[in-house]
Specification:
- Helix 1 packs across helix 9 and helix 1 packs antiparallel against helix 10.
- The longest helix is centred in the C-terminal third of the chain and has 16 residues.
- This protein has 2 domains: 123 residues, 3-Layer(aba) Sandwich (D-Maltodextrin-Binding Protein, domain 2), CATH 3.40.190.10; 99 residues, D-Maltodextrin-Binding Protein, domain 2 (3-Layer(aba) Sandwich), CATH 3.40.190.10.
- It contains 10 helices and 13 strands.
- The chain is elongated, with a radius of gyration of 20 Å.
- By secondary structure, the protein is α/β, with parallel strands linked by helices.
- 35% of the residues lie in helices and 21% in strands.
- A 5-stranded mixed β-sheet has the order 5-1-6-13-7, with helices on both faces. Strands 10-9-11-8-12 form a 5-stranded mixed β-sheet, sandwiched between helices. The protein has a 3-stranded antiparallel β-sheet with strand order 2-3-4, covered by helices on one side.
């Protein structure tokens, strides 16, 4: 999804790697959570296993769940080699960690009632239309900047936004594609709506997406993770995992 098939990343030599322990949390479904049997599960858990298999270090691989507040300390103390839990790739965090490349970005999307959904160019077709968006969000700023001819309708909560697009009180909703995808797949949406246009990737508003954090001096491990992530993507494994946990694709 995010990898260039023509780019050749070097295959890492991990013969000296003693172990590869991924640190995550249990409260970020569907990325990492405890299933009904109390077993650590989720997209990140399966992705970590796929990375270990690709790097041929499955026998050295562990995945441990900790409270969010303890992740940084555990990595610093050497209780793990990598954090896969949604650590934001900010300038401040770049001073604390080395990061893999982004493996999943969260695009903005429009949602419209099925009977009225339109195709690109939405910039033209939504002129003058009322488009709901959560007030004060990055998506509101993006909507006003990139689609200045729509009539932005700010909502206090996402739930209120969903209720009005379902009721047909607004022409479209604009927001986080992943969260919209879960709503569309759920019973609350009652099959009322679908994605229209997009997806719209905008790092300046929405960030650069998810990446794996390692110690700042462990750039060789970050490069090894990049290699594994690229191979997983090119072989189709990433797409398989993605659709397993995100059945309504936000792309």
């Amino acid at each position: 999804m995010l990898w260039d098939a023509n780019e050749r990343l070097p295959k890492p030599d991990l013969t000296k790697l003693a172990r590869l322990r991924f640190l995550t949390t249990t409260d970020f479904p569907p990325f990492n959570f405890l299933d009904t049997a109390g077993k650590l599960s989720g997209f990140h858990v399966d992705l970590a296993r796929a990375i270990c298999a690709e790097l041929a270090v499955a026998d050295k691989c562990q995945i441990q769940a900790l409270p969010w507040a303890e992740l940084d300390g555990a990595l610093t103390k050497g209780d793990g080699e990598a954090i896969m839990a949604g650590v934001a790739v900010t300038q401040e965090n770049r001073e604390k960690y080395a990061f893999s490349r982004s493996y999943l970005q969260f695009p903005a999307r429009f949602v419209m009632p099925k009977a009225k959904a339109v195709t690109e160019p939405l910039y033209e077709k939504l002129k003058g239309k009322r488009v709901g968006v959560v007030a004060g969000s990055a998506h509101e700023r993006m909507l006003r900047d990139d689609f200045p001819e729509v009539t932005a309708a700010p909502f206090p909560t996402e739930a209120a936004l969903f209720a009005d697009i379902k009721a047909g009180k607004i022409d479209a909703a604009f927001g986080d594609g992943m969260r919209f995808g879960f709503w569309l797949a759920g019973s609350d949406a009652a099959d009322c709506c679908r994605f229209a246009g997009g997806p719209y990737l905008a790092p300046e508003y929405l960030g650069t997406g998810l990446a794996i954090a390692v110690k700042p001096d462990d750039k060789d491990l970050a490069a090894a993770l990049d290699y594994a992530l690229q191979q997983i993507a090119l072989k189709g494994t990433f797409a398989e995992l993605y659709l397993r946990y995100f059945p309504v694709s936000f792309y």
